Amino acid sequence: MSTATPVPRSAGPALELLVHGVGGATPQEMLGDPRTVRISGDEKAALFRRFGDEDAESRPDDHRDQPVLEAYCWSNLTSGNSARALWLLLVPFMVANLAHWMRPRAKGMIRTTRLYGMLVRLVALSLTVLMTAAACEVTLDLVAWQCAGTPECSGRRDWISLLASAEGGWWSQPGRRLAALAVLPAALVVLLWYLSNRTWNAYESQRPPTGAEVAEGETGPEDGSDESGYEESGHGEYGAYGGGAAEPLRPDALPGDGPAATAVRPALGRPGFWYGRRLVARLRAAHTAAGFLTVSAAVTGATARHDRSGDSTLLDLSGRALEAVHIIGLLVVIAVVVRRGRSERRFDARLDRTVVSALPGCALAVLALSLLYAGWSRPGWTSEGTLTGASIAFRAIVLTQGAVTVALAVAAFALQRRARHPRSVLGGLGGPAAALLACALGGVMTGGLAHWFADRLSGDGAIPGPPVLLSWQAAVIPVLLTALLVPLAVLAVRTWAAGRRCAAEVEAEYAAAETQDTGFGDWRSDPIRTRRIASARARAALTDTAAWIVGFISVATLLLGAVAVAGAWGSGREPGRAFGNSGIDEAVAEAAQYLGSWLIGFGFILFITWGRRAYRDASARRTIGILWDVGTFWPRAAHPFAPPCYAERAVPDLTWRMSTWTERTGGRLVISGHSQGSVLAASAVWQLPAATRSRIALLTYGSPLERLYGRWFPAYFGPDALARLSGEVDCWRNLWRHTDPIGGPVLVAAADGERTVDRAALKDPVVYGRSRNNPLPEPLLGHAQYQADPLFALERRELLDRLRSHIPRQSRETGAARPTGP
Predict the structure, then answer these.
(1) 3-class secondary structure for 301-334?
(2) d(CA 436, CA 406)
(3) Peptide bond just before 259 cis, omega within 30 deg
(4) Which residues pair with 5 in a beta bridge?
(5) Could you tell me which of 18, 16, 10, 1 has the C-alpha nearest to residue 674?
(6) Tally: H helices and E strands in the chain
(7) Of 264, 325, 485, 626, whose CB count within 10 A is highest?
């Protein structure tokens, strides 16, 4: 990038780059003008200006008093297409991916950090196996094995008559029925693979504008995994970054940082942070192979169990050989998942082609062999009870998830002891809590799917139904919901009490400010108005206590899950039948089981209904889009089938725009982010070279940078990272309100040391009651319309006044700035 020298402020234009928050916004709303024009971008994300401002840089006198407004609209990345409503079914995968990013930041604990990332990836792998097993439970166990093998069930359904054992046709043998319907869960795995690959190409394949590149086909050192935040000692998670003398260009350096810059970049500022192609491709191959192997194991396990008691030695040996192949395949998949994490120190365009191509192909070949093996003729074989191995499989999955999440909690606790970040949620255990919540969501969806289909098929109990463990899991759902009422009631009482205590503070605050402006004499108190303002502040503070609700749910889920596994394992019967003739206990257990089955079935139907409504209703799609705005900010580092990361498109977009505009014009730029837009803005600023970063002002409002991201993701948005960001930008100002449930202060000092980044809380409402200037009551805005506050324009003007314009060297020599960028 060309060098720049300061010139008077009037020599260059000023640009305010607006980035909207959750829920999206139209260019017309952001720019305050019904006539807008797109100047760059596509239908997913684009830059807009007011009509007539396309060439505003060539007419600086027209914008001497106000900056040129430019809006970056990215809402279509999360809520533009109706098909994205189906992403609701991927919520467990998304939550597991969030757990990867929630670890505490600790210096020097390389092995523990590596262990944390490995355990999260194992949790994510177990979820893929669980969801595939749920599909197998419905298609192979309930339909092919139980219903098709029971005349009372298959006789009432014409669509299953071809596979019914009572028909005596070619497909009536259990092995052939399993082979035929195994195509459906295998197709689900293929669909997940396709969606992951397609969404990566559409959302996450954007090249970063700067950074050293390792191209596809190059050799070079193995990076290992870079899952940590930055390490000031010069060492990352899997090896040294060059902690001695500075190299001409470190792997994690950015052009413009200069050879003298020895400090390692923050994680979000590394060249490869927003480009995870290599890891996502590896994980996608491993999870696809795991899905195929799960389907294959379900078919092979039941068939091999029958052949052990049969007369054919060849079939017995074939079954045993296939089971051994499945064990080897599982070990290979686990090895691929745990061996490599993220590589962030450089832009890495390589692919592990052996893993990406061979692993799913080999697993598919094993599945084909299993289907051929199961399709071999076995006269006299009948299906009874539940599918062989189904109960053992679900039990093994649940036990594995419990053990891994406990180990994850131990690793997080060790990291937190070294990090000692006092504002981390749950004492640094937010990641394990999220992982356990992901497992719970997966279990609810699995049980809901199985029980719903079992109810549709059996009705009067014609078939045994799903495995016993799923019934026990259903029985603990009412217990969990009942226990959850206690902390919710306590929270409601505390919020009510906080609102009452806040009333006096609200009146004192507005009385001091409005006595001279009422127009009706002395300031007058309005109890109803005061109570509304105080209640809004108290409700907004609930965000800070939500973490403890998540922690309570996670602990209760772990304990009740252990009870469900123990009950299913110990009794081998459904809860309603496990208590013998104990009278009241049996009745209570049976009621809990049926109520839980109804609840998880209702939850599953609710997911489907919400997705269908979102397909037809744009407002519902917008609501679902808000969920993805928060949940899919982070790259897919743990689960490749999670909804795609929009920031891997949005952050490079903003970085490219700021880099090219400042170099081409030498003007002043304020990047102005609201809500989630402030997180995108900060992430984009981190990606800028030092020469550009020092010429940018950052204006955030309604920002969750510290309140949510700093507490839930301390390794990336903790106090050290935010303080460093404040020191790297030219100037930064943050606006917030007490009534905002999302935004809050960032709690760091400004770079000049003269003031904090946070301004004093904006008043909401701006005016307490009626006055000469405000004859009608002002609304409570909460998280919205920060730009309507009169202080917003003053703060923006102050930021622009503090920035100096720069003219590129070529511009000073030839009189024309050199255009750069795309």
Answers:
(1) HHHHHHHHCCCCHHHHHHHHHHHHHHHHHHHHHH
(2) 9
(3) no
(4) 807
(5) 18
(6) 26, 11
(7) 264
Beta bridge partners of 48: 38, 71
Q: Which amino acid, residue 198?
A: R
pTM score, two decimals?
0.85
Peptide bond into 765 cis (omega under 30): yes
Instruction: Please identify which residue in the block is written with the tokens 């701006």.
Output: 766
Tokens coding 22: 């959750």
pLDDT value at 295 more than 80:
yes
Q: Which residue has the tokens 């590896």?
A: 282
Specify whether domain 4-74+646-814 bears CATH 3.40.50. Answer: yes
Structure tokens at 401: 């998830």
Which residues are CB-contacts of 335 (< 8 A; sequence separation ≥ 6)? none
Least confident of 17-26, 177-186, 515-524, 696-705: 515-524
- Asked which of 262-266, 320-324, 329-333, 466-470 is least confident by mean pLDDT, the reply is 262-266
* Under 8 Å between Cβ of 236 and 351: no
Task: Judge whether 34 and 28 are in contact, CB under 8 Å.
Answer: yes
Q: Look at the alpha carbons of 399, 400, 406, 409 in this order and tell me if their dihedral is positive or negative.
A: negative
Tens of pLDDT, residue by residue over 104-161, are 887 778 889 899 999 999 999 999 999 999 999 999 988 888 888 777 777 677 777 7
pLDDT bracket for residue 738 (50, 70, 90): very high
Domain range list for the chain: 4-74+646-814, 469-631
Distances (CA, A) of 673 to 313, 654, 704: 70, 11, 11
Q: Dihedral angle at the C-alpha atoms of 90, 95, 101, 102, nearest 10 degrees? A: 180
735 touches 728 (CB < 8 A): no
